[in-house]
Amino acid sequence: MQSVTLEFRTEDLELLGLIPADLFAKYEEVELLETLRLEQGWRLQLLRVRRKGALRSAAELERESRRIRAVYGFESFELVERRPRTRDYIVLVRQRNPERLRRLLSLAGGEISPTAPFRITSEKVVASFRGEERALRRVLRRLDREEFPYKVLRASGRPYPAETATSLLTSLQAEMLARAWVLGYYAVPRRITLTRMAHQTGRSAPALGKILRRAEGRLVAQWLSVEGSVPDGGTPATAHDGEA
User: Fold this and answer.
1) Least CB-packed of 33, 46, 229, 235 within 10 Å?
2) 238: in domain
3) Against a cut of 0.85, is the pTM above it?
4) In the chain, at which residue ranges do the beta strands (DSSP E only) sit?
5) Is the sign of the CA dihedral 67, 73, 76, 82 positive or negative?
């Protein structure tokens, strides 16, 4: 797997319909936290949105949800969390992909996915992707042919540092661990409870807790083995973890 981080002008992506033209009248920054589903026709993403002024209440957002969907082109919009101290909303949105993005996704053939860092401001977009080298090259060649301006900030044939760790985890463990991190489950103080997060994932709190503990145990065992600090007696068994 390869990774690449690109920089675009925000105004260019506005022209493509990927970013609403008046988004930054009220907001300072948007960060893509996680892409939960990416199809050729639509995408489901978890976003952090920083407002310029004080945050609106959850009730106000609920009352205005229809207008918000219309203004920003969302098929669905769900408030996950308010963070008044940092003026951030965490929202789950589903959007239709504009035609140009559909063509690029078709060209990628499902072999490319967005990843961190992925931040949008009024002036520039820093967007990162990982995937098969041949697919990344196809997409970049298409951008070059269409004379779409971008700058390569970072390109690497090496795996992401986290890849060694996540290779220890099942896909379910990796997904739930990433979701817990971005929602603030590991923050101090904790910003979301296990029960609330379990409800959002459609699982019971005990089941989700087991998935997270097994993932944490594997990562800790790996770290201890790398550091040479594993106590006599070895590491916990992880070969037969049931549902994870």
Assistant:
1) 229
2) no
3) no
4) 2-9, 27-38, 42-51, 74-83, 88-96, 112-120, 124-131, 151-156
5) negative
